[in-house]
Every structure is written in C-alpha cells, then in structure tokens.
Amino acid sequence: MRIHASDVARTDDHPLWVEISGDEAWWDESRPHEGGRRCVVRRTASGTVEDVLPQGWNARNRVIEYGGRSWRSHRGRLIFTNWDDGRIYVCAPGEEPVPLTPEGPARYGDLVVHENRHGPGDGESGGQGGEILCVREIGGGREVTREIVAVPLDGVSPIRSLIKSHHFLMNPRISPDGQHIAWIGWNHPDMPWDATELCVAPAEGGPYRVLMGGEDGRMSIVQAEWRDSGSLYAVADPTGWWNIHLVGMDGTSRNLTPMDQEFGDASWRIGNTFFALAGHRIVAMHGTADERRLGVIDDPEAGTPIRDIGGSYAFWSPTVSADSRYVLGVGASPYRPHEVVRIDVETGAPTVLSAAKTLPPAELLPTPEPVTIEGVHVHLYAPRAAAGAPGARPDGRAPYVVFVHGGPTSSAAPILDLTVAYFTSRGIGVAEVNYGGSSGYGRAYRERLRHNWGVVDVRDSETVARWLITSGRAEKVAIRGGSAGGWTSLAALVHSDVFCGAVSHYGISDPEGWAAETHDFESRYLDGLIGPLPETGRRYADRSPVLHAGRASGPALLMHGMEDAVVDPSQSERFVAALARHGGRWAYRAFPGEQHGWRREETIVSVLETELAFYGLIFGFPTPEVPPLTLEGTGAPDTGGRGEETT
Q: Most CB contacts within 10 A, which of 376, 413, 496, 610?
C-alpha cells in the first residue's frame, strides 16, 4: 500500500488566516481542484460550515509578490482582495462581490478593519461605516511605491493616504482612542528579519516617531498590537530571540518573555499574527522550528509563566485570533494535517472546526526524528521498509533525499507532510535540513548564512548526506528543494560529490542574473546572503550553479511555473543549457499557468509523479505506476523510469 500523488494534491495544504467574528469562526483554504484558488469559509453559530466567497473568486494578492493578509470579516460580510484584478471587494454570503477600490494598477494587502465610528455611512440608517487599513502597492519590477491607506467601507468616499514612511510597510494599527496609528517599516537592503522599525504617528497626519528599532538599535520587529492608547505589545528580537515586549509611547520597552524561544518568525507574508489579545491575556505561539506550541500568558506584566493550550498539536501556523472566551488557530502534528482549531482560553481544550481530511492509513505516515548533526538541525523520516516498497534494501540501507526548504530564511517543521509521506511510503527516506540560516533557532543561527549562501547551506546539506551514508542508513543520497531550496540543491550538485542527483522546483541557478531580474521585495536580499554587487561579484561567480554545471555529480530534474514573478523560468532554462554544453543529464518540465509554487491539482500530481520517476532512474528501482521519464543529455543511459536499461 502506498500514498498516491492525488492524495497529496487533495490534502497537503493549510489555511493562511483565521478570524473570530462574534459567534462565528472564519478561515480560508486552498482549492487545488478549483484551479488553486483560495476560498474563505465560515462556521456559523449553529455549526454549519459554508463557503462565503463565491465560485470564480480568489482571495489572494501579490503584494511583495508573496502576498499579505487578504481578507477580513466585518458585520457578517467578507472584505477581500481578488487575485485577478488586485481590487478590494465586499460581499455577504450568497451575494456577488462589490468593489471598494477602483480599477487600476494598485494591489492591496495586510487588511485590518478600523471601525471609525464617526466615519461615512454610520448612523441610524445602519450603513456600513468604518474603513479598511491596508498596504497599497503600485508599480512593477523595481519601480514600486507603497503606502498605508484607508479604504472606506461605504464604497463612495475617497481612499485616504495615511503613511508614506518606508519602502516596505506592514501591520497598520489604530490606537483604541483613535488618536494614533502604529506600523512597522523597513528599507532596502534590509529584509524584515534583518531590521525593521516600529513607528507611531498622529492618526490625522503629522511627523512619525520610531519607538523600536532604528539605526541605534537594529532589530527585527514582526508584529505590534495596542495594549491601550499609551502602549503596545511588540514581537522583537533585541536579545537575539523574537520575544514579546511592552513598548511605551516614549520608546521605553520591557521584555515580557525573556527566554531563548521564538515568539515570531520571518515575515515572508505581511499580516501574520504570532500573538493575539484575549481580554487581559496574551495568546502566543512560542518555541523553535522543532516545536511551536500555543500558550496563554494570564498576566503578561507580572511575569506569569506560559500556560500551554491546544492539546497535542506540536506546531501552530502564524495566524491566531482571540476574544475573551476563545482562541482560533491552525495547528498540526506529525500525525494530523493543518486543522482550524478553536480553544477555550480557560480550560485549554481544543475543538476542530475545519472539515476532516481523508488521510492515508496511519502505518503509511512517517514519524519525524529530530536530530542534530554537527550543529545542523535535521528532521529524519525513515522509509517504509515493508515488502513491496521499491526503494527498500535487504541490508536496511535505503535511498534518501535531503529536503531543503525555501527562503532561505525559513524552516521546515516536523509535522505531517504528505509530500514526505509520498516518498517514504515507497521506501525512500527523507532528511529535512534546517541548515545554518534557518529561522526558528534565534538570530545567531539565522545569521550563519550572512554572506555565506551557497556555502553554509551546501556544507550543512552535505554534512547530513555523508552522515546518512556513514551511519548505515543510506545507500545513495539525492537532494531536492523549491525556490531558494532549489538553489541549494543545484549548488550542492555542482559543489559536492556526495549527491547522485538533484531536483529543483522553481529554483535559482544564476545568482547574479536573479539579483538583476527578480521582484522588488528580494532585489537586495543577496546583499546580505552573498554580498553587494558589483564589489563581491567574484563570490557570485564562484557559487553559481550555472557557471559550474560541468561539475555536476549526477542528473538534475528542473520544474518551473511559467508565470513565476519571483524566480523567472529562465533560471531553470539556463541551467539546462549549461548541462547541455557540458555533457550533463537532465529533465525539464514547464507548467503554464503556475506561479511561484504549485497550486493546481493536476500540477501537483504531475510534479510528484515526475519526481518519483526521476528517483527511480537515479536510485535504480522501477516506478511503473507513474509516467516514464527520459533524461536528456549525453551522460550514461537512463533506465526509462522502469528500472532497466534501454537501448
């Protein structure tokens, strides 16, 4: 018995945002079978779960390309950004959406409702008053401007520009008395995990002040919420760990959670909520990339210990909503997929609200084994060695694949991942590597990658691969990853001799080219990862997979979405061309209609089956249940995906 690619496509995704709205719970979910759109649903007070977003609408946006908070509920209605045109719409369940913003080039994200009780539309008539505060982005490529704006919910009044302080902005929040607005901003060349500023200004306009961060106190602030009209709670890392701080309007601050744990994470999307206020309490995620629990701080300023809630869920996504009674979040474990969970604040008891997913039999699901190998954090997933698993070997050794996460400032969590299970069910072991530079282990570990991308990540992956072989677990080892993980996979293939093959999903192969052509958000990312150009051009050349393709230690499989605005498909095409020039072996698959990441059911199935066929070739076992794959190039002959040589 094995897991099929269609099982993965139907199950392997999770909500990005949740919200408590009165007696209702709202969340979004991916619909691979509906073209990959994100649909917003709600669970009513009676327990009925229903779609709020009609067919044909997609609650996504491409602010900073990775997107921002894309929807909010307000008085029983849904306010959302639509993927196709970037506009903000509003609709009630069962109604067609109505636009709140004009046609044009603007994109909106990181939405939050401000009631604005004296605004247009309020009053005895029962009109829709209030505003949506959000980040508005205009432009493309490197020519992008951003500001925080207020979009009236009456659909008539003009949009107001509130803040134009930094090149990047997020987290707009109006104080309880309506007098001030707080936000987080940063500028090139910093990324939000490098240095941001927590700012405050009069809500009606005027100069702003920096409360945390700035040139004299560089730190990463990733979320801030008003405690009252004179102070805020903020997640910041002046100690090297993202802790919760109490920040006064005079700029003084106090660490309320002084411990070597992360209460935040890298802000790849704007609008994440790592903590929420439940009355006088704080509900927060905390831990490391190996385990992230959900806890309650009953008296934040008295230093009361964190009281964990939510049962056996070992990892919580960066979205949490709360009121005085309940907390809403997205939890997962090694044996349960991401689920929308409502938790009683007093008792800590969880209730699953999202629909149950059909999972493979428990015996097919691998158990993660967290290990540290020469200082490198790894999650091992042993292969299923039962009879009939094609990758299994009589001596206990097995083929292994090193999984490299994207980012690179990100991490892999030890939770149920059906992509991992898809391969382990076929006798292929998986080692997820949280290499130096990964988030979730403090700033010092995160900054091991500074100016060392293509060195530390490759070395750490190689260290794990060699350990798998010398420890007797692995016979052969391949490497795979997406985006920045694709870069590491290709770089490891050409700068190490331990890997018998590499798989790159929408990966980078030419760093100098990518630095020149990628989108604005990451256009200066490589300043910190490799070094500024042109001064450090030699580093780019030394580490480039494209320029060293002739050293490849095995074949490569490259797959790319043709509408990818983060990593252009030409990055994969250049590496293929380089392999062709140097007599390498490869397969390349392009997917029209896909962006940076796989969202459509048919794509997910095709990608997984192609990857399995590739492993059949390089590891030497038959894969008759998937379409055969033929490698191109002039290297040693492949086996046509059937485990036997062809002529």
A: 413
